[in-house]
Every structure is written in C-alpha cells, then in structure tokens.
Design a protein that fits this description.
- The chain is an alpha/beta fold.
- About 40% of the residues lie in helices and about 20% in strands.
- The chain has 16 helices and 24 strands.
- Strand 10, helix 10 and strand 11 form a beta-alpha-beta unit.
Length: about 475
C-alpha cells in the first residue's frame, strides 16, 4: 500500500478516520494526471472534534517535561532518515517537485526538527524587581494552548512541520489543515511521522477540507488561540480579519515580489547563477523567488545574454528524472494563469527574450524585458517560471524600483563591495535580504518573515517562542500589603 492510499484520511485524536463532508478531494499527480488518492473532506463536526481533542490533550502535554518532549523530535528525525527515498518520491508525485527540490525540502525539514529539539528548552522565565521590597515578580513563558496551522502547496511537508514542530515542542497542541492540492505531503505524512515518533493522541490532528465545506470554522472556532497561516496575501487578509474578530493572534507568512539587484561591480557569472536559481527553483512556485531581476544598465547587455543562455539550458519535463530542472506547476489552472500573464505582458509592450510554451501543467521558462513602468506584472507575485529583467541607472533608482511593490519578503544585492551591498540592502523594504546570494533562503534560527503585504510576525529561532507562547505574570507578596480600605 502506498503512502497515498494509507494516509487518505483525517487524523483526529490519534485515529485515522473518514470525513463526513459532502464531497471528495481527489489528489492528482500534477505531471501525469495520475489519481493518487481520494479523501472525503472533513466537515464542521470534524473541525470541532479535532479542536476538542487538541484541547483535551494540551494540559497533559504542556505539563510534560520538555526533555521528554524532545524525544519526539529525535525519533522523528530517525524516521525521516530511514524513509528518505519514499518521502522524496511522495514529494515528487504530489507536488511535482524535482529531485533537487525534494532533497532541499527534506534537508530543511530535518533542520527544523533539530531546532525543535532545542526550542523545547527555550521558553525561559524571568524575575523582575518590584518597587515593593517584599514583593517578587515572576514572568513565566507558557504555551498558548491550541494552535491552528494552515499550510500551502508549494513546500507542504516543510511548511507544515515548520509551524507544527515548534508549537508542539513548546507544549501546545495543533490542528493542521494542509492545502487541498497536497493533502498527503502537507498533512498525512506529517501526522504519520509524529504518530510513529510517539506524540500522544490529540496532540497533533490533521483535517483535510476546504472553505467550500467548512467556511471559516477553522479560524472562528473558540479553542485555538493562534492561527499560523502560510499562503497568498489575499487569503491571508481574510484569515487576519476573521481571526482579529475573535481575538486570536495570527502569524502570517504571505506572498512576495522579490528583487535581485545586480550592481555595476557585480560578478556577472555568479549573479546569473543566483538569479536563475532564485527565479526558477520549483518552477518559480516559491514566495521568496526573484520575480524581478534589476540590472545596472552598464552591465545589462552582458548579464542578459548570459542569463538568457542559462535559462535556455534548463531542462523541462518529468520531475522524477534527476536531470530535470523544471517540473509541472501544481495544476492546469495555474499553468493557464501563467500563460495568460505572459501573453498580457507582451500585448502591453514587453519583449519576450525567451517565450515559454505550455504542455498541460508543464510550462517552459519565459524571460521578459522592456516592460513599461506601470505594467501590472511588475507589482504582483508570479508563481511560475517567468523572469522579468529591468534595467536601472545607479543605486538610487535600483532601490526605488526594488521598493515599488506592495510586497516586502526577500531580496538580494550583488556587488563586488560587501559594505556597498549592505548599505543598499538596508534601504530595501523587506523582512529579509541577502548580499551576494540568492533570494530563496530559510534557516531555522534566523527570523523569517516579511513586511507590507508579505505578512505579519516572524517564525524561526526565538521568534517561535514569541509566536507560540504567552507571558504570564505571577507576583508573590512575601510581606503584607497595606490596603487603603
């Protein structure tokens, strides 16, 4: 039995069960259209059952010694090591991820599980002075309780684990809803790994469903105190609005429109390598991808020639073939949307240096230049293999163009002068930016998140403690307070 057949269920209170919703989510391989699984969606009743199970389990789990909680992550790491081949195959089959992408995702999952080992011990309290000589102020870091996690389709295993693992490490319990296009990698596999690693029933619950079935029940439910959402800014705005109305904290990791800036003194060959990877990794379906490549006009021609040559060398095809660079987009609708976006940009005056075609969900790369300053494509996230090359004259214009977007997630600056790169990087309105590197990076101890429409809050490292715990003040009067009446 494959992972897809074995895990095509809801996972609630330690049991694998069918949903009671009114329709099935059919899980397809985006490359060849093969049916992988059919899952009856969870209804509102299962959402309530999952949250109530998490609520019942939380007190005991939160009181578990953090050294004991750490053992779960040690075992989870061993499970992933033992089943790396099967897990990579699942990522390729369900996500259309190439061998490089699958290996990259599994590497980061391991890194975040290793960080969770340490995170379990990092909810440190403090003792603060008081103006009353006989009084003691203790600040405790305590779990928020129950966390709702909503994960996306592009790196589903990683981006589910990235919130689930720290939340559990810090004594919370979780209800996870994976994206409907990746219910197994984003949900079932996560539940399976943690179940085998020894997480008690109710600590992690997975519900496979859709807003068409449950509306806002996942967000509005009274049990969860924090909602961690990764996805588009459009949906993120809705999540934030609904959550705020119910006094819930949100961690929102949203879209991006990152710029990779090539200054006049950059190593062009290296900058080309960084830009091509940053734009086309996982078919461009990455929030940190370099949508816009900004190039100083003095080196534009040389850079562009080298960039185009490298893009033309990329191999498009079967993600199961280790030689493939670009596999399928997640579904036919996304492929059609990317094709329409390129057509509109060309109709509006852009020049296609490379014009990629489409065969089903396989979309070949496009490289556009000569865009008008008000071209709509410049201001939006492009979740596909389309690169925009934009010339500029000097640092000031580069900074202005990089900031001319409602997003602010990632970015990069390439230069022969490190401190020059840092000066430019400081002026880019983004949560993360990298000097002489790509735009796609994630490290488990470094705060990850964006500005503007790219999100609210940070994940990773100590930011996880802020995200998934709350501060409790307990004062102790060792003497006697004199009350005025």
């Amino acid at each position: 039995m494959s992972y897809f057949e074995e895990l095509a269920f809801q996972y609630i209170d330690g049991e694998w069960r069918s949903g009671t919703g009114s329709w099935d989510i059919v899980d397809f391989n985006p490359y060849n259209g093969e049916k992988l699984a059919s899952i009856t969606v969870a209804g509102v009743a299962e959402i309530d059952q999952a949250y109530r199970a998490a609520e019942r389990a939380q007190a005991a789990w939160g009181a578990t010694n953090p050294y004991t909680r750490r053992l779960v992550f040690e075992r989870a790491l061993r499970i992933i090591d033992d089943r790396e081949t099967e897990l990579a195959a699942a990522i390729t089959a369900e996500c259309g991820g190439t061998a490089l992408k699958a290996a990259f995702e599994l590497h980061l999952v391991r890194e975040f599980l290793r960080e969770a080992l340490h995170l379990a011990l990092r909810a440190e309290g403090r003792i603060l002075p008081s103006p009353d000589d006989t009084k003691e102020n203790r600040l405790y870091r305590v779990p928020v309780g129950v966390v709702g996690v909503i994960s996306p389709f592009n790196f589903p295993f990683l981006l589910s684990v990235k919130s689930v693992a720290p939340a559990i490490a810090l004594g919370n319990t979780v209800v996870l809803k994976p994206h409907q296009n990746t219910p197994i990698c984003g949900g079932g596999l996560v539940a399976k790994v943690f179940e085998e690693a020894g997480v008690p029933a109710g600590v992690l619950n997975v519900v496979v469903t859709d807003i068409a079935e449950i509306g806002d029940a996942l967000i509005e439910h009274p049990v969860p105190k924090v909602i961690s959402f990764t996805g588009s800014d459009k949906v993120g705005r809705h999540v934030a609005t609904v959550a705020a109305g119910h006094f819930k904290r949100t961690i929102l990791e949203l879209g991006g429109n990152s710029a990779l800036i090539v200054l006049d003194d950059a190593d062009l060959d290296y900058a080309v390598d960084a830009a091509v990877f940053s734009r086309f990794i996982h078919q461009g379906q990455v929030c940190m991808a370099a949508n816009r490549v900004l190039v100083d006009r003095s080196v534009e021609q040389e850079f562009t020639e080298k960039f185009v040559a490298k893009v033309r060398s990329l191999r498009v095809g079967d993600p199961g073939d280790p030689a493939t660079h670009i596999g399928p987009l997640i579904n036919a609708g996304q492929a059609e949307a990317i094709g329409a976006l390129v057509e509109q940009a060309v109709a509006d005056g852009a020049t296609a240096l490379v014009r990629g075609g489409a065969e089903g969900t396989l979309v070949s790369p496009s490289v556009l230049t000569g865009l008008k300053a008000d071209a709509p494509i410049l201001g939006q996230e492009i979740f596909g293999p389309v690169a925009l090359i934009i010339p500029f004259d000097g640092e000031e214009e580069a900074i202005r163009l990089a900031n001319a977007t409602p997003y602010g997630l990632s970015g990069a600056v390439h230069t022969g002068d490190i401190e020059r790169g840092v000066r430019v990087a400081k002026r880019i309105d983004s949560g993360m930016i990298h000097v002489n590197d790509g735009t796609v990076h994630d490290e488990p101890i470094v705060p990850f998140g964006g500005e503007k429409a790219s999100g609210v809050g940070r994940l990773n490292g100590d930011s996880m403690v802020d995200a998934f715990t709350t501060t409790k003040w307990i004062s102790i009067q060792h003497g006697r307070t004199k009350f005025p009446f």
